[in-house]
Amino acid sequence: MRGVVLEAAGTVTVAERENPTIVEPTDAIVRLAATCICGSDLWPYRGLEPADHLPMGHEYVGVVEEVGDAVRNVKVGDFVVGSFVISDNTCEICRAGYQSKCVHAQFVHGTIGTQAELARIPLADGTLVATPGTPDPDLIPSLLAVSDVLGTGWFAAVAAEAGPGKTVAVVGDGAVGLMGVLAAKELGAERIIAMSRHADRQALARQFGATDIVEERGDDGVARIKELTGGLGAHSVIEAVGTQEAMTQAMRATRPGGHVGFVGVSHDVTIPGEELFFSEIHLHGGPAPVRRFLPELIQLVWDRKIDPGQVFDLTLPLDQAAEGYRAMDERRATKVLLTV
Fold first, then answer.
1. What is the value of pTM for the model shown?
2. How far apart are CA 273 and CA 258, in angstroms?
3. CA–CA separation, 140 vs 223, rounded Å?
4. CB count, 10 Å around CB of 258?
5. Share of the chain above pLDDT 70, in %
6. Residues 6+ apart with CB under 8 A from 21
């Protein structure tokens, strides 16, 4: 099969990889209908994480082609959406809603690699969720978004306790930040402030529910948030970047007693203990337990109540994955969908 491999930082190829086969009775083989490039894929692409012949991709939808003898929840022919973390969905941690920290957790990125034609999904019963039927082609981008970027933005909004009567600020205007805006809107937030300097992303943020746009960053951005909130700061802040500046900005823009939901993959972020102590804010986040939200989000997409697929602003065939990485790295695209 064809699959995307990061040979080294900045070098993406589409290589012939061995077709996956059933290894464990709990496995399923999925023929991918679509996959995509994630903002987190840019970390190894830019050399900020190890990159040595790495199978790429962790967002995926497709049709089940084969199942192991122990698989009960999905069957051959089902169209499925899967989480970017493998989970059994039965352990104590999973039952508490944190499937991304399942006792049997395995990241799809770097091991399975779903920027490919086929993927072996371990613990299929706990990781995959079937859609109500075969989706119309125009629903596939939105279902693909559910697999990670929407699920992650949704977790960020839940972790930040976005809801009715709340003002939500979103730090980061990439795909996850934009999905955080959509999630905050669906969860009933009264006011949503998107922090963005890019006109196209500002427009999409407003389409997803943003009521205000703040272009300032750092201390200036914090000051603007406080100006908009009577000097108090936002009730809920989503941090969707993973840098020191973004986390500092998120914390300082949150009012006392407020909540920060952080889902940006942390890179060299430190939190001064004294500042945290005197801020009196809540911090909650990490790798999103997307599996917790899959049934609800799939249904919202299926019923056409939300359209997160709009976040894909460039579609390319799998063979042109290298161009997709370049486009995202150069900020010519927010998120790239790869057709298989």
1. 0.96
2. 17
3. 40
4. 25
5. 100
6. 29, 120
